[in-house]
Amino acid sequence: MIIPRPTALTPHPGEFVIPPALNLSAGKGAERAAGLLTAYLGPDRPRVTYGPRVRLSLGEPDLPRQGYALRIDPGEVVLTAPAEEGLFHGVQTLRQLLPAAALDPRTAPPDVWRWPCATVRDAPRLPWRGVMLDVARHHMPPEFLQEFVDQIALHKFNVLHLHLTDDQGWRIEIEDLPRLTEVGAWRAESMVGPAGSTRFDGTPHGGYYTCRTLRDLVAYAERRGVTIVPEIEMPGHARAALAAYPHLGNDPEVTRPVWSSWGVSEDILGVHDEALEFCRTVLARTAEVFPSRYVHIGGEECPTTQWETSPAARRRAASLGFTDTAQLHGWFLSQMQDTLAEHGRRAICWDEAERNGELPADMTLTAWRDPAHGVRSVRRGHQVIMAPYRPTYFDYAQSARPGEPAGQPDLVTTLEDVYRFDPLAGDVPIADPLDGRRPGVLGTQAQLWTEFAPTPDHVRYLAYPRLCALAEAAWSEGTRDYEEFRDRLAAHIERLRVLGALSARGVMV
């Protein structure tokens, strides 16, 4: 009943009863995974050196880097993996093999601490298995972000992509640029309904994360094998930044507030030196907070009409030999890619920015429009994260039933739609994250945009159980059976309930 389904699981007779005092040993490199397992089994459980043993170690060279091997016998549990990432995944399998009541150690009765005997050999289909959470449209409490990290780790997702800036809010503290959070983190009200609505709620909204809060989140996620990938939108979706520093735009004499509408603002960053230096500073400070190898720089939905009338943009285009100021878009993103490379990082942008082969082949792209665009980008030499909106944008409603909460209009994305999504459709290779020069599909991820999700409870409703289905598409090899998945999901829902991952609205299955 594990989600995502393991590569191979063979049950055996018997069970390993977890004693009140735990004989847990960790080889070199396995200490953090052992610490995580200890926390899941109850932080007050003392460690001893006698009795039935649980042993974690690095080994298993014949498994992929994120794979693991697990053997549960009545007297011993052995978890091995070629790298720490695999040990983290094995710990999550042990967590799911517990009775659901044990997932909250504070309330678990004594008789639930047991694992069924089994042998597991398991490895992921794709190296990047992510969830994007938009905290720019609606700020989410840090405590919820930690809960969410722990829940996606349970499903063997290894990336939380935080959408930190947009037209409607700036959520990351940049100490050199205090007005970004003093001004850019707050808007006067929010639109009610989809983009283009004429209704507003009249309620101020805002908030931001200090560098310390974000570093704490990064450390919390790292202890669970999850990497936090930050996103700083540029050169479009920048209205919050321009509200704080109008001189960064294309009409520095005009001051505009943080945008209170949904959709796409025409106000974008300029391409003059001050705007470029601003972006370089922000990226440098962001890289200091987030050790992730990747930093997302947005790049999508960037109307370039303001550059057409900007003397500075026209001069820049002419100096570069461009015949159209729209060509500055790819140039701008390439400049930021170079900046990140100076800090030892790799840039990601949404694939819409890759219009006519304008971006360097070593730019990683998030393909959000449809799978065909992702396949085309792979053939142009890019590594791609497959995130087509129809199966992976969870801000769309889960059903057309009466009473379904409001979502983005004109589309319903069901649990089955997500489950049947194949990130590798189109005969594309899997990319190697350690070799950015080899094109292919790096992975897939869900998108949780929050125009229609102002609270953590809304996010929970949109996320589950669809995240369970995407976890399987990202992790599990072989033929998939939707009805068999639903059987496993029925048991898994109780795990989510115990963890507090389900919305007060209930769950759509």
From TrEMBL:
<dbReference type="InterPro" id="IPR017853">
    <property type="entry name" value="GH"/>
</dbReference>
<keyword id="KW-0378">Hydrolase</keyword>
<protein>
    <recommendedName>
        <fullName>beta-N-acetylhexosaminidase</fullName>
        <ecNumber>3.2.1.52</ecNumber>
    </recommendedName>
</protein>
<dbReference type="Pfam" id="PF02838">
    <property type="entry name" value="Glyco_hydro_20b"/>
</dbReference>
<dbReference type="Pfam" id="PF00728">
    <property type="entry name" value="Glyco_hydro_20"/>
</dbReference>
<comment type="similarity">
    <text>Belongs to the glycosyl hydrolase 20 family.</text>
</comment>
<dbReference type="InterPro" id="IPR015883">
    <property type="entry name" value="Glyco_hydro_20_cat"/>
</dbReference>
<feature type="domain" description="Glycoside hydrolase family 20 catalytic">
    <location>
        <begin position="127"/>
        <end position="477"/>
    </location>
</feature>
<keyword id="KW-0326">Glycosidase</keyword>
<dbReference type="InterPro" id="IPR029018">
    <property type="entry name" value="Hex-like_dom2"/>
</dbReference>
<dbReference type="InterPro" id="IPR025705">
    <property type="entry name" value="Beta_hexosaminidase_sua/sub"/>
</dbReference>
<dbReference type="InterPro" id="IPR015882">
    <property type="entry name" value="HEX_bac_N"/>
</dbReference>
<feature type="domain" description="Beta-hexosaminidase bacterial type N-terminal">
    <location>
        <begin position="2"/>
        <end position="123"/>
    </location>
</feature>
